Amino acid sequence: MGYFKDIFNGGLSLIEGMGVTARRLFRPLVTVQYPRKKIPLSSAYRGHIELKIFGESGTHKCIVCLNCEKTCPSGVIRVQGEKLKEKGPKTLTSYVIDFSRCSLCGLCVEICPTSTLKYSREYELVGETWADCKIDLLARLARQVEEMEAEKKTQGIAA
Amino acid sequence: MDELEKIEGNERVYSLNLGPQHPSTHGVLRILLDLDGEYIVKADPVIGYGHRGHEKMGENRQYKQFLPNTSRMDYLSGMLYNHGFVLAVEKLAGIKVPERAKYIRVIASELNRISSHLLWFGTYLLDLGGITPFLYAFDDREQILDILDAISGSRLTYSYCRFGGVSRDVDMKFIEMTRAFLKRMEARWVDYEDLVTKNVIFIHRTRDVGVISLELARQYGVTGPNLRACGVAFDVRRSEPYEVYDRFDFEIPTGSKGDALDRYVVRFREMQQSCRIIDQALEHLPEGEIMTPKVPQKLSPPKGEVYTAFESARGLTAYYLVSDGSPGPYRCHIRVPSFGNLNVLNDVLPGTLVADAIAILGSVDLVIPEIDR
């Protein structure tokens, strides 16, 4: 008797399980076809760092204090500056990060005294060589400024 | 395979390597099995494949520079490890934490605990041959990762807690998302019960399999859901409440036999209890600061030592820090629960079938990089 009871209970539990799966059939899809469709990033997203562009000056505010370089646990950041003016802070000449070693902890962003560092929103960072992982933030900044100006121009024409 | 075959007296013992690349060993665990036919005679776990030297790394850098490492030891409960390290350093340096930050930490930790258990739930059933629950569990887990991503900016390696608070405040959107998640899970628990807990095949596969007796659990220092499945209601959140856990009303689910089914049930009910904690924490979430002002950037705690235990998703985890007054710890030791949970298999696996080895190995919920660290 126990044998048939087992079969009956087993069948019942299977049908119950199938019921759950069947109900799922009529629910909307949860997957996204990634390269064609993208989901929005969260506002807190931590990408690699980049220099912030300040509206009033149109450039960054880096004073080459080297705090970010010193605080980085993995030695990702290399900052170089030159003393161009007699008084005041140094001028930034090169800001290169080695993204292959970055653990995205954000200590550099938090320690920056002029808050000129921020997280970028880039996540498609495939490279073929080590050199692809090295990101020159000054060149990136120049590119972004150019883009912004081009955008302003097109907006001006449209207006 | 010839070299692996040994002849001991009249008995023919066959050595089999389970792992390190076996899909069911989750990470890089190798277990040397000595087999007599289908039965395991001896099991010898080999660890160390994922050794990165996290403890040593902690000793040659500043306290805050160790924060990103904490989430990388146990990558499934990164928030809990992060939380625990911050607790230890705060105790060492005597830093007070604002109430709001404490509640946010608890909510984030419990969410992380659910996500860790959900991943275990999915992969364990995958090990046993059921693919469907795996996909459902990952769908639910994705909701948690989205919530934690919205507050910390990262999906797995959070590095969210700071000495004296948390790095980002939560907003109404976070509270809404978490509430929506809790509501969603209520229906999901019923689905999972129907799909898995009541499934006869699953019950037959796990009942009386891999019984860890209470005596054995004590000998090996098994903690967490594996110990609770033996019937001991030991949970650091209850026995030594840290943060604000003493203010919440929650049960500690326990099993009776300590077999794989009990471990499953305990984890399953623990997820529901975590939901209860989150619900209460959201209700009583106070307004105010999220960071204590005036925590120095270069923290140099006074000379001394501290031991802080907390309940990670896998059991009792602890940080032991020794400070010599410098900006980095002199000694940084981490007690991981998976070490005990793995080594108990030395005594549990012998006498069982090879096919059951995977069912037992999966049921103790191991994260190997946490053992190797």
Task: Using brief descriptors, characterize the structure shown.
heterodimer, A: 159 residues, alpha+beta, Alpha-Beta Plaits, 3-stranded antiparallel sheet, 5 helices, B: alpha+beta, 4-stranded antiparallel sheet, 9 strands, 47% helix
Helix content of chain B: 40-55%
Uncertain stretches of 5 or more adjacent residues of chain A:
none
CATH class of the domain at 49-158 in chain A: Alpha Beta
Radius of gyration of chain B, whole Å:
21 Å
* Elements of chain A, N to C (H/E): HEHEEHEHEH
Give a quick account of the main beta sheet of chain A: strands, pairing sense, barrel closure.
3 strands, antiparallel
What count of helical segments of chain B does DSSP give?
A: 15
Oligomer: heterodimer
Overall spatial form of chain B: globular
Instruction: Round the mean pLDDT of chain A to the nearest integer and report it.
Output: 84
> What shape does the CA trace of chain A take?
elongated
Structure description:
The complex is a heterodimer of chains A (159) and B (373). Chain A has 159 residues and is of the alpha+beta class. Chain A has a domain at 49-158: Alpha-Beta Plaits (2-Layer Sandwich), CATH 3.30.70. In chain A, 38% of the residues lie in helices and 14% in strands. Chain A has helices spanning 2-25, 67-71, 107-111, 130-133, 137-158, and strands spanning 49-51, 77-82, 91-98, 117-119, 134-136. The longest helix of chain A is centred in the first third of the chain and has 24 residues, at 2-25. With 373 residues, chain B is an alpha+beta fold. Helix content of chain B is 47%, strand content 14%. Chain B is built from 15 helices and 9 strands. In chain B, the strands form 3 sheets. Chain B has a 4-stranded antiparallel sheet. A 3-stranded antiparallel sheet of chain B has the order 7-8-9. Classes of the chains: A alpha+beta (159), B alpha+beta (373).
